[in-house]
Amino acid sequence: MFINRINELKSLEEEYNKKTSSFSVIYGRRRVGKTSLISKFIENKPHIYLYITLADLNSQLDSFIEQIKKYLDDSMKEFVNFDSFEKAIEFLVTIKLEKKLVFVIDEYQYLVAKDKAFSSKLQKLWDTKLQNSNIYLILCGSVLSMMHSEVLSYDAPLYGRRTSQFNIKPIKFKYISEFIPSISKLEQMHIYSSFGTIPKYLNEYDNSLSFMENIEKKILNKNSYLYSEGNFLLKDEISEPASFFSILKSISLGNRKIGHIASSLGVSSSYLSKYMQKLIDLDIVEKQLPITETNPLKSKYGLYKIKDKFLNFWFYYVYKNYNYLEIEQTRYVLEEIETNFNDRFVSFAFEDYVIEDIIDNPKKYLDFIPLKVGHWWNNKEEIDIVAYDDKNIAFIECKWQNSVNIEQVKTKLIQKAKGLHENKNAFYLVVTKNDYLENEN
After folding, report:
1. CB-based contacts of 300: which residues, under 8 Å, 6+ apart?
2. For a disulfide at 93, which of 70, 133, 386, 437, Cβ 3.0-4.6 Å?
3. Same topology for domains 6-167 and 174-345, yes or no?
4. Contact status, residue 346 vs residue 189, Cβ threshold 8 Å
5. How many CA atoms lie within 13 A of 9 on its CB side?
6. Residues near 267 by beta carbon (within 8 Å), at least 6 away in sequence
7. In this model, does residue 131 exceed pLDDT 50?
8. What is the mean pLDDT of the segment spanning 393-405?
9. Whether domain 174-345 has CATH 1.10.10
10. Of the CATH numbers 3.40.50.300, 3.40.640.10, 3.40.50.1100, 2.60.40.10, which one belongs to the domain with range 6-167?
11. Nearest CA-CA partner of 238 in 287, 189, 274, 188
């Protein structure tokens, strides 16, 4: 199933259509859809696609050679053999094709793990051979730390060679219904708050089951794919995960200030700094600041958030409850989900949905197009969403409740917003669960 990624495909096509050679780096976390994007792009194009594993490199080199032979005359095939990846890559330059050849190395980090000098070898090949050829080189990887150290960082061997890069992100909320057709808007929000928007996770969802049945069978079942996914995600990136797991569990429990996280773990805030930065670098955690903050580096209001909704759900309901789930006592965890899922997860996911929807469809909510949209808070108050441009500012509260006194909420909102709209036209809006559901098809 291939959904969306229109902009990425367009940019890849533009790279391919250049009269010169091209070199793109595609990276992003596991399961986000990088390989599906590449597969779609190379359809109907001459290509050699290598999916690297941790298996023996010689067998993978044999597969590489067999793909090369597809583009050779029969009279040449029996004479073509190479004893290294470098020689095989160098040979690609000699292949004469009417169209540009796309050469993809997927899961590039595993090739580097097998041959630590490979990036330096590829750098030399690019500088001396590939950059003057009719080849489009694509390196793709899902271990972000290694992709940075080998390709993206300033001191990486291949730094400065790429002509484009693509950081593949999870899909937007609005595409969930394309992965899982015929679901209600309520179920769509529940899925968003638990399975998140990673394509692979959405593909796990069984539309013939209820939402809670999916949670039980697809996430809480210790034999299911998603049950162990949190472990696999982090162990790919981190060699000693215990401290990181403790931090992420603490954040999932609601400790979002650095001091609160440190206190819950019995350590100092300064001790946590390197761990927090690592999690940010890996795109697992983000540090949020009030949207109106003018001096981010000196702000005292930083809050930490697990970016991926599935991972946040996993740490709270799976990792925290391993003792029950390992002995198949899922009923206890299901009862916990039924008790607090809406308050702890859906209500906050609803705020994120509204922010995304405002950015995509500002006129649905506002009489102006905002330059910035996000959360706001200080030591005493918080406002779910603030959106503003140079002349206008909107204050928005999101209520995921069946019954809401809108006027009462708006009155409190006006009070909280005092002093935040100097010299701007101020607007106040309450967005409710009913507002979201009333557009049900």
Report:
1. none
2. 133
3. no
4. yes
5. 14
6. none
7. yes
8. 96
9. yes
10. 3.40.50.300
11. 274
| CB neighbour burial string for 114-134, b if at least 16 within 10 angstroms, e if fewer | beeebbeebbebbeebbbebb
Cβ atoms of 57 and 115 within 8 Å: the answer is yes
Q: What is the β-pairing status of strands 22-27 and 47-51?
A: unpaired
- How does residue 441 score in pLDDT terms, banded at 50, 70 and 90? very low
Q: What residues pair up with 25 in beta bridges, in sequence order?
A: 139, 165
- Environment class of 336 (CB within 10 Å of its CB; exposed 0-12, middle 13-18, buried 19+): middle
Q: Which amino acid is at 324?
A: Y
**Nearest Cα to 131, choosing from 157, 163, 173?**
163
In this structure, what token pair is assigned to residue 153?
A: 């960082």
pLDDT at 439 over 80: no
Residue type (1 letter), 79: F
How big is the chain, counted in residues? 441
User: Domain segments of the chain: what residues?
Assistant: 6-167, 174-345, 361-437
Residue 402 to residues 208, 304, 392, 432: CA-CA distances in angstroms?
26, 29, 31, 8
CB 29 within 8 A of CB 141: no
What whole-number distance in Å separates Cα of residue 23 and Cα of residue 19? 13
